[in-house]
C-alpha cells in the first residue's frame, strides 16, 4: 500500500488566508481594534493590568476575528454582552479597521508576482478564505489590486456562514470547499497563524505555513507553532511558493 503522504496529488485549488498572507494588515488591524477593546473594558468595568495594545492583541489573538476575540475576553474577564451589543461593536471595529487599511495597506512582499503567474497559467482555482469580515477582506484585496485574481471567491468565517465563527473552527474551509465543488485532497491552503493552520488541517487540507511577516526569534517560534499545528511545509518568502507547491503535488510533503 502506498502511504498517503508519498502519493502524487492533483491540486486544483489554492486557498489563501488574507491577513498577513496576501496583505500586511495584522498590525494595522490590531492597532485599530485595541482602542475599541479598551473602551469596552471601561464600559464593562473590567480592570486591566494595562491597556491593550495592537502588539499585545497580535501576540494573543493573531488569526482570530474580532468576534472571536470578544468571546474569549468575555470568558477571561467574566463580563457579558448582549448579541446586539456584540454586533454593534463588530460593525464599529470593521469601520475603524477598514479606514486604516484603505489608508496604509500594502501587499505581502512577493505575493503579487506569484498571483500573476498563477493567473496567467490558468491551472488552479484561486480563492480567499479568511476569519475577517467579508467587507474588510474585500476592501483589503481591492486596495492592493488583488481582487482581480479571485472574483467572487472570497469567503469569510465572520460573514459567509449561517452562524458567524472564527478560525480555528474548520467551518469556513468546509463551507468554501463545498461551495467551490472541490474535495479537500485537491486543495492546498496558505496560512500564517496557528488558528488558521488548525482550521485548514481540521478541514482535511494540506496547509503551507507562511512565516514571511515574522522576524528574528518570532519567525523561529512561528515555524514551530505552525508545524505543530499541522502545516506540512514552511514558506519563508513568496519566491519559494512555486517549488513548495510542486513538493505538495509530488507527495513529498
TrEMBL record:
- Read off the InterPro entries from this record: CbbY-like (IPR044999), HAD-like_sf (IPR036412), HAD-SF_hydro_IA (IPR006439), HAD_sf (IPR023214), PGP-like_dom2 (IPR023198)
Q: Coiled-coil region(s) at which residues?
A: none
Q: Which Pfam families match?
A: Hydrolase
Molecular function as annotated in GO: phosphatase activity
Return the protein name. HAD-like domain-containing protein
Source organism of this protein record: Cercophora scortea
Amino acid at each position: 500500500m502506498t502511504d498517503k503522504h508519498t502519493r502524487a496529488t492533483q491540486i486544483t485549488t489554492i486557498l489563501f488566508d488574507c491577513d498577513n498572507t496576501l496583505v500586511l494588515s495584522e498590525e494595522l488591524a490590531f492597532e485599530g481594534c485595541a482602542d475599541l477593546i479598551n473602551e469596552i473594558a471601561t464600559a464593562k468595568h473590567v480592570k486591566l493590568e494595562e491597556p491593550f495594545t495592537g502588539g499585545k492583541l497580535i501576540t494573543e489573538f493573531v488569526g482570530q476575528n474580532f468576534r472571536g476575540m470578544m468571546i474569549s475576553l468575555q470568558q477571561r474577564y467574566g463580563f457579558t454582552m448582549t448579541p446586539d451589543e456584540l454586533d454593534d461593536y463588530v460593525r464599529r471595529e470593521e469601520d475603524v479597521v477598514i479606514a486604516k487599511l484603505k489608508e496604509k495597506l500594502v501587499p505581502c512582499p512577493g505575493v503579487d508576482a506569484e498571483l500573476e503567474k498563477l493567473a496567467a497559467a490558468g491551472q488552479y482555482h484561486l480563492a480567499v478564505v479568511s476569519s475577517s469580515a467579508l467587507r474588510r477582506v474585500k476592501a483589503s484585496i481591492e486596495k492592493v489590486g488583488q481582487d482581480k485574481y479571485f472574483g467572487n471567491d472570497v469567503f469569510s468565517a465572520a460573514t459567509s456562514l449561517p452562524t458567524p465563527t472564527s478560525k480555528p473552527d474548520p467551518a469556513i474551509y468546509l463551507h468554501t470547499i463545498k461551495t467551490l465543488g472541490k474535495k479537500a485532497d485537491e486543495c492546498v491552503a496558505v496560512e500564517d497563524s496557528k488558528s488558521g493552520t488548525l482550521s485548514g488541517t481540521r478541514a482535511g487540507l494540506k496547509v503551507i505555513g507562511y512565516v514571511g511577516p515574522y522576524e528574528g526569534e518570532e519567525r523561529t517560534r512561528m515555524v514551530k507553532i505552525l508545524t505543530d499545528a499541522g502545516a506540512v511545509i514552511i514558506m519563508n518568502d513568496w519566491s519559494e511558493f512555486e517549488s513548495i507547491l510542486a513538493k505538495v503535488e509530488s507527495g513529498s510533503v
